[in-house]
Amino acid sequence: MIPRPGRALATAVLAVLLAGCGGGQGDGDTAPGRPAATKTTAAPPAQAPAKSVRPLARSVPVGLRIPAIGVDTPVMGLGLAADGTVQVPPVTDDDRAGWYRHSPTPGQVGPSVLLGHVTVGRYGDGVFRNLARLHRGERIEARLENGTAAEFTVTAVRTVAKADFPTEDVYGDVAGPELRLITCGGPRDGEEYRDNVIVFAELSAAKGV
């Protein structure tokens, strides 16, 4: 079974992302933001998938497509840094998403967690710059190393204060294969975004199986 962070570890794991989303190396958001109100973005109702989809075998994600917001990015693996916080994608001009490899792979039972920047300092917009514009019912496709693809349907898009990050909602046990996409968002307090944007999605189809 793929290990899932407990409450304490999950909080530590996300600390770097929450404080430095889109920053690092002196080029972006590196200071903690002030708390803001938790809110859920408005979205049109969506139909539930017509039928349940059998979970997929473990296979590392290598690409991510989100047609509604023009994302088509390679995916890199992210582990833990020496201080126990999660690694984040490097701040470069070829910004990409990263999969937290201590979460399930996309399509396995459980919440698979992918992180991305909203801005990348002097390089401009990050790969997840438009994540907050997603709506329920829109599709996300994770391309896997074994040649298959896991297609997910967005169930919710939430903007939350960094101080109120919903650890259990992101990492808690779920009955089926789910996806979590995380970036920064909301207003800025100086150079730091106050909030996080979290997309929740459920597996709705599998291709190439």
From TrEMBL:
UniProt keyword list: Hydrolase
PROSITE patterns: PROKAR_LIPOPROTEIN
Region (Disordered): 26-54
Compositional bias of kind Low complexity: 28-50
Pfam family, one: Sortase
NCBIfam families: class_F_sortase
Protein name (record): Class F sortase
Organism, scientific name: Streptomyces tendae
